[in-house]
Structures are given as C-alpha cells and as structure tokens.
Specification:
The chain is an alpha/beta fold. It has a domain of about 70 residues: Response regulator (Rossmann fold), CATH 3.40.50.2300. It contains three helices and four strands; from the N terminus they run αβαββαβ. α2 links the parallel β1 and β2. α1 crosses α2. The two termini are about 20 Å apart.
Length: about 120
C-alpha cells in the first residue's frame, strides 16, 4: 500500500487511520518524515495497537524528537548537512559555467530503535 500524505501529521493520520481499518491492514509503516511517523504512532495507539508488537514504524529523517517518542522511532538518518553541501557545491560549479549535472550518492544510516520488530 502506498499513499501520499503531504508530509504532515494530519494528512498522515487520516491515511493511516483508513489503512488500519482495512481487513488487510499493514504490519508496518515506512513514513516519509518524522512528523508522519509520529502520526503513525498516535493512530496505532487509538486503534489499540502496540508498537512494535502489533505494528512497526520507521521514519526517514531522524530529527532529535524521535529519540523521545514512545517508543523511540527507528529511522533512516538522512545526511542533511552533506546533502546541502553537495547541492551548494554543484550550484557554485554551475554558476561558474562548469559541468555539475549528474547523480550523486550520499550514504545514509539506519538507526535502529524500539519502533520495529518482527511481523505479528
């Protein structure tokens, strides 16, 4: 199941609520950002589900608040500073008339915390 949540708590909460009411509800959510992952935790609790026993939640972002959620969120830590540095480097090169197009890989890190577990 894939849905577009607009990167907001409210939109994600509405989508996740609908998905959890489905007879084939997912056993995990991979959320585009921390705010959407917080919505998953909130909606799961309102459905009487326990994270990670009944549902796993992973976020892409890893802002400081994820360590304080209940449970602390597993997250894909995006190397934001390195991404910004690479973008600036490429923009400066372009402004000088240099070749700067192409695909670039910047390593990410999976930070395991308590919001993931084996499928129920």
């Amino acid at each position: 199941m894939v849905a577009t949540g607009g990167f907001s708590f409210r939109a994600a909460a509405e989508i996740i609520d609908v998905m959890l009411k489905d007879v084939q509800a997912p056993s995990a959510f991979i959320c585009d950002n921390d705010e959407m992952a917080f919505a998953a935790l909130h909606v799961a609790a309102s459905h009487g589900l326990s994270v990670p026993q009944d549902l796993s939640v992973i976020s892409f972002e890893d802002t400081p608040g994820v360590r304080f959620s209940v449970p602390p969120l597993t997250a894909v830590r995006q190397p934001t500073a390195a991404m910004i540095a690479k973008a600036c480097e490429r923009l400066i090169a372009l402004s000088r008339g240099e070749e700067a197009w192409g695909a670039f890989e910047i390593p990410y890190e999976l930070i395991m915390r308590d919001s993931t577990g084996p499928a129920p």
